[in-house]
Amino acid sequence: MAHILVVDDDELLRVVLGRALEEAGHTVSAAASGRAALVSLEAARYDLVICDVFMPEMDGFETLRAVKERAPDLPVVAISAERRSWPGVPSPDFLEMAVALGATAGLRKPLDLKALKALVARCLRSGETTAPDPPEAS
C-alpha cells in the first residue's frame, strides 16, 4: 500500500493514527514537528502526508508550504480541531485555508478513524483537492 508521514506534535495522536493506518495496510512514519517532517521527506519517499495545522515552532501552514515546494504532487491532508468563535465574532476555517494553500483535503479533530481511512484512500486514488469535512453542529 502507501507510505504515509504523520506530522503532529501530539505523541498519542501520532501513535493512534499510525496504528489505524497500519491496520489499513499502510506503512507509517511519524514526525513530531514540521522541521522533523522536512528531514523525513529528504530521507524517504512518501505517498501522502497527514499534517496538523497547529504545532509549535513550525506550524502546519509553514510545513505545507515547504512540503509543496519540495514535492508539489504529494497529497497532504491537513488536520485540526475546530476553533470555537465568540458569539458574533466569526472564526476563520483553518482547514479551508489549508486547502486553499495546497492541501489535498482537511479533516477535523477529534478524528473519526473510519472517515480518516476513507479520506486517505480517496486522496491516494484520485489526487483531487477536496473541501474539509463540515464542522459538527453545536
TrEMBL record:
Presence of keyword Phosphoprotein: yes
KW Transferase (keyword) present: no
SUPFAM superfamilies tied to this protein: CheY-like
The entry's keywords: Phosphoprotein
Residue positions where 4-aspartylphosphate is found in the record: D52
Xref: InterPro entries: Bact_response_regulator (IPR050595), CheY-like_superfamily (IPR011006), Sig_transdc_resp-reg_receiver (IPR001789)
Entry protein name: Response regulator
Lineage of the species this protein comes from: Bacteria, Pseudomonadati, Pseudomonadota, Alphaproteobacteria, Hyphomicrobiales
